[in-house]
């Protein structure tokens, strides 16, 4: 679709007359020196292009219009190509006076064909040849292309006759779309007009449904590849859901089917309302502004709005911080609101066409289904809504105005009847949002219907997402509306806050309906026994509803829940339970991941906070739903096992059954279970390898891993290996697991972490155990690097070999670590102020040191080295990574097994650790051990005694 935007005469992008005059001068002074003429011509064009684009960049910062910027660069490109075309014909091939029938045509296609061009985008050109091209045509085209390439442009091009264009477009939808968007740049206007006329007559006429079906299928596949959600926190501005390509799909279909030249004509046709059209205009201008800034900032065609550039783009667009939200978070919230508008309106537009021209059979063949042949039927229990081919639609345009509760009832009826939504119904909902007022929010029936949707035994997440996309959810619950499209500027959360909450409800529904039995066996068992599930569903939906506020979101969220729950119809008892769950929704996760679950005080403190089994069950389920909905790869079996261990230990305390005997009996049962799993082993081996582990290992590690470890240790013993490593990949979780068997040593974790850093592996979690014969069995999780399992296994084997070489003394770490440290890329996108907390109240036996800072390769190695330098014995370590932030907890004593109580010593520990966390300890790496670790000389680490 051609744009009417043009560069203003006073834009200063390019003095076309001056460029032509310079070209004439170059031609006149270099007539006999073709190579020199080309060099000077290239220099002139490069200078003109650079100056023009710099001027376009300055104007973008001045007026902020993305569409104008894209139009200016397109105009600049047009002028450069036109001048180049004329120069080639007049001065290189002497064809300026050739007969008009011999002239070629240069047309812009793709995004460039729409009259918009991003600073780093490809230039797509279609060269039209006459039926009988002149001998100079192809050389002239090659001359132009080579000069454009030498200027640094990426040029996509095709050279065809009009007849070839028509033939190819019949069987290739990509070519058909390109020709649909073709725009005249220079050359023969007659040839271009002929292409347009024939294309309209021979291709477009009567093929609207075919084109629509292909474009909708193409859109769906593009969305699938991009993640099928517009709420990814690093969105693709061009290809992502709600991005510019969705607008392009609208333009293509509008131009092809409705035969319009300007999107404004869609208002006259009744396809869009005037307000919807204005919304599209604003969205397009905003997305173009973001895209142009991205290209200017990175110097390339960057389409992914990554964390690395979000802050700078926000600054360029003038966003300012707000209490509770940084400038970049405000910018990204605006981005997602725009993407939501684009996605919703495009979906309504495309769904309307899809409904009018549905395919009866797969493939490109399609037939028009007349709007007059629809057969709507009544839905039991309502006169306001009808079913139309599996979709719920309105009985008349006054449905919502007549009874605003119908804005909620529509979604409730769709849920209980498992109906999709008719585009006419969604369009009417969008245009009726003003009816969602205070009266509707306080309406008892409306709240009853909403609670029924939330706790539906079918698919509540789907209905809530439809309500959110239509704008109803944020209006009905204004506090939810505040977090719609809100992102959190960190690497941990993959989705916006509203999408995270809806996904959390989806996980809860899956557990409730038994679909998560294998992934979450404990929650599957607990769910049916809950006295009342309603508070849990409400807590899951609201647990992050206060994100983006100055105060702690758990505390603020509890206040919101105290206000909302009575409105939803919850009793005072239910309300108090929801409030408590939201206040404590992070507690179980943090205790499980950052505390020593084998320390009795950890369990007693947690049990005191929970107090009842019903709370414990619900908090566990809420925690699972929360972690699972953060994003792909965040949840793993390790976290599941930690949560189960915390649950079982706390259950014993709350039920009054906590005792060393109970724990011992459970460990005994676990040992017997392991022995049964090793039934095909000899009795001697079973006895040896089941007695190898202390109780914490048996109570914490899943049986599957215990069996793997037993086999691994037995093979190492048979081979008489003092040092051994075992690796496996977890492609779904994007992590790789490395298990190390080694003689125990106080600095073992430091050495392993250093070896991983030397091999370029970033540790995201660690599990440390000591065997009864004085060996260490440590499992390290590192970030995955390769998508292919075979490649990742080779990398993991290299890391394992590095660990073995360092532990055996064959390699020395300090030099390698130092080199990696110098070349390390620090993340400019994130800042996490280093923090160190020392507590003697979290454990009866140990001092607990917790550090929080920005994660980086080698950090764990440096921190543990400092702890060893400070004569601290690490009994257990808990490594937890939340995206770019790391929270590591170390249970330590001094060398005689006592807590660290001296304030001066504590202050020294904090200072030394903060220096390392800030990467200021230049000599920290030099203190790491690198010599041979002789098994006979290794003192057994005190953590083994602590584990007993």
From TrEMBL:
Region of interest (Uridylyltransferase), residue spans: 1-378
Regulation: Uridylyltransferase (UTase) activity is inhibited by glutamine, while glutamine activates uridylyl-removing (UR) activity.
InterPro entries: ACT-like_dom_sf, ACT_dom, HD/PDEase_dom, HD_domain, NT_sf, PII_UdlTrfase/GS_AdlTrfase, Polymerase_NTP_transf_dom, UTase/UR
Keywords, comma-separated and alphabetical: Hydrolase, Magnesium, Multifunctional enzyme, Nucleotidyltransferase, Repeat, Transferase
The EC number(s) this enzyme carries: 2.7.7.59, 3.1.4.-
Coiled-coil annotated spans: none
SUPFAM superfamilies per the UniProt record, alphabetical: ACT-like, Nucleotidyltransferase, Nucleotidyltransferase substrate binding subunit/domain, Poly A polymerase C-terminal region-like
Pfam families: ACT, GlnD_UR_UTase, HD, NTP_transf_2
SMART domains: HDc
All copies of domain ACT, residue ranges: 737-818, 848-929
Cofactor dependency: Mg(2+)
Highest taxon in the source lineage: Bacteria
Domain HD: 497-613
Chemical reaction(s) catalysed: [protein-PII]-uridylyl-L-tyrosine + H2O = [protein-PII]-L-tyrosine + UMP + H(+); [protein-PII]-L-tyrosine + UTP = [protein-PII]-uridylyl-L-tyrosine + diphosphate
Role according to the record: Modifies, by uridylylation and deuridylylation, the PII regulatory proteins (GlnB and homologs), in response to the nitrogen status of the cell that GlnD senses through the glutamine level. Under low glutamine levels, catalyzes the conversion of the PII proteins and UTP to PII-UMP and PPi, while under higher glutamine levels, GlnD hydrolyzes PII-UMP to PII and UMP (deuridylylation). Thus, controls uridylylation state and activity of the PII proteins, and plays an important role in the regulation of nitrogen metabolism.
Alphabetical list of NCBIfam families matching this protein: PRK05092.1 (NF003467), UTase_glnD (TIGR01693)
UniProt record similarity statement: Belongs to the GlnD family.
The protein, known as: Bifunctional uridylyltransferase/uridylyl-removing enzyme
Species annotation: Shinella pollutisoli
């Amino acid at each position: 679709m051609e744009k009417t935007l043009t560069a203003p005469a006073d834009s200063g992008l390019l003095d076309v007359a001056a460029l032509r005059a310079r070209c004439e001068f170059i031609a006149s002074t270099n007539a006999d020196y073709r190579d020199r003429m080309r060099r000077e011509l290239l220099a002139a064009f490069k200078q003109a292009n650079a100056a023009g684009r710099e001027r376009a960049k300055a104007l973008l910062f001045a007026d902020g219009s993305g569409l104008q910027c894209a139009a200016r660069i397109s105009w600049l490109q047009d002028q450069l190509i036109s001048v180049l075309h004329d120069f080639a014909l007049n001065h290189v091939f002497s064809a300026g006076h050739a007969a008009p029938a011999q002239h070629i045509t240069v047309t812009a296609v793709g995004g460039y064909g729409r009259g918009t061009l991003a600073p780093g985008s490809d230039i797509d050109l279609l060269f039209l040849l006459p039926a009988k091209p002149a001998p100079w045509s192809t050389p002239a085209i090659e001359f132009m292309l080579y000069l454009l390439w030498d200027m640094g442009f990426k040029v996509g091009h095709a050279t065809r006759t009009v007849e070839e264009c028509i033939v190819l477009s019949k069987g290739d939808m990509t070519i058909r779309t390109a020709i649909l968007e073709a725009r005249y740049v220079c050359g023969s206007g007659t040839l271009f007009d002929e292409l347009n006329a024939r294309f309209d007559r021979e291709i477009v006429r009567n093929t609207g449904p075919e084109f629509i079906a292909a474009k909708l299928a193409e859109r769906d596949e593009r969305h699938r590849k991009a993640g099928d959600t517009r709420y990814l926190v690093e969105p693709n501005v061009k290809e992502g859901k709600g991005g510019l390509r969705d607008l392009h799909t609208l333009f293509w279909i509008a131009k092809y089917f409705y035969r319009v030249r300007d999107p404004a004509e869609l208002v006259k046709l009744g396809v869009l309302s005037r307000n919807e059209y204005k919304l599209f205009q604003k969205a397009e201008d905003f997305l173009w502004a973001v895209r142009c800034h991205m290209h200017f900032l990175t110097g390339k065609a960057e389409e992914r709005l990554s964390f690395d550039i979000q802050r700078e783009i926000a600054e360029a667009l003038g966003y300012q911080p707000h209490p509770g939200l940084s400038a970049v978070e405000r910018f990204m919230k605006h981005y997602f609101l725009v993407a939501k508008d684009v996605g919703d309106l495009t979906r309504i537009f495309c769904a309307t066409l899809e409904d009018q021209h549905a395919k009866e059979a797969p493939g490109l063949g399609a037939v028009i289904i007349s709007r007059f042949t629809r057969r709507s039927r009544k839905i039991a229990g309502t006169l306001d809504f009808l079913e139309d081919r599996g979709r719920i639609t309105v009985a008349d345009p006054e449905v919502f105005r007549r009874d605003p509760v119908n804005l909620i009832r529509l979604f409730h009826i769709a849920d209980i009847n498992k109906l999709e939504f008719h585009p006419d119904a969604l369009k009417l909902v969008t245009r009726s949002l003003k009816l969602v007022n205070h009266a509707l929010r306080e309406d008892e029936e409306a709240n009853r219907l909403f609670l029924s949707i939330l706790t539906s035994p079918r698919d509540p997440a789907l209905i809530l997402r439809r309500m959110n996309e239509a704008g109803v959810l944020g209006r009905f619950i204004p506090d939810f509306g505040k977090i719609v499209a809100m992102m959190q500027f960190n690497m941990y959360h993959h989705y916006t806050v509203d999408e995270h909450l809806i996904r959390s409800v989806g996980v809860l529904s899956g557990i409730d309906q038994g679909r998560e039995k294998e992934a979450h066996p404990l929650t599957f068992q607990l769910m049916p026994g809950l006295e009342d599930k309603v508070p849990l569903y409400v807590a899951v939906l609201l647990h992050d509803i206060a994100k983006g506020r100055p105060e702690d979101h758990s505390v603020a969220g509890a206040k919101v829940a105290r206000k909302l729950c009575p409105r939803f119809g919850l009793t005072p008892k239910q309300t108090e339970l929801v409030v408590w769950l939201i206040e404590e929704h992070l507690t179980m996760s943090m205790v499980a991941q950052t505390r020593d679950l084998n320390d009795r005080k950890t369990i007693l403190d947690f049990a005191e906070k929970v107090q009842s089994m019903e709370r414990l069950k619900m908090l566990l389920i809420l925690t699972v739903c929360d972690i699972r909905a953060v994003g792909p790869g965040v949840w793993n079996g390790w976290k599941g096992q930690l949560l189960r261990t915390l649950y079982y230990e706390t259950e014993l305390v709350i039920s009054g059954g906590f005792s060393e005997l109970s724990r011992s009996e459970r460990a005994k049962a676990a040992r017997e279970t392991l022995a049964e799993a090793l039934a095909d082993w000899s009795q001697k081996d079973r006895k040896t390898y089941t007695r190898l582990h202390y109780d914490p290992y048996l109570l914490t590690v899943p049986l599957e891993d215990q069996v793997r470890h037993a086999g691994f240790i037995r093979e190492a013993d048979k081979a008489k290996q003092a040092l051994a490593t075992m690796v496996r990949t977890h492609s779904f979780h994007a992590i790789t697991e490395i298990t190390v068997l080694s003689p125990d040593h106080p600095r073992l974790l430091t050495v392993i972490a250093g070896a991983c850093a030397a091999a370029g592996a970033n540790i995201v979690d660690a599990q440390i155990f000591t065997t009864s014969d004085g060996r260490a069995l440590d499992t390290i999780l590192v970030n995955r690097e390769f998508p292919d399992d075979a490649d990742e296994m080779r990398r993991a084997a290299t890391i394992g070999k590095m660990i073995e070489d360092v532990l055996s003394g064959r390699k020395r770490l300090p030099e390698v670590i130092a080199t990696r440290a110098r070349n390390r890329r620090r993340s400019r996108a994130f800042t996490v102020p280093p923090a160190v907390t020392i507590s003697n109240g979290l454990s009866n036996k140990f001092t607990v040191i917790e550090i929080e800072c920005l994660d980086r390769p080698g950090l764990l190695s440096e921190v543990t080295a400092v702890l060893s330098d400070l004569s601290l014995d690490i009994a257990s370590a808990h490594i937890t990574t939340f995206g770019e932030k790391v929270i590591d907890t170390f249970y330590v004593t001094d060398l005689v097994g006592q807590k660290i109580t001296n304030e001066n010593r504590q202050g020294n520990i904090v200072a030394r650790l903060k220096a390392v966390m800030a990467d200021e300890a230049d000599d920290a790496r030099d203190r790491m051990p690198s010599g041979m670790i002789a098994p006979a000389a290794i003192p057994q680490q005190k953590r083994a005694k602590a584990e007993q």
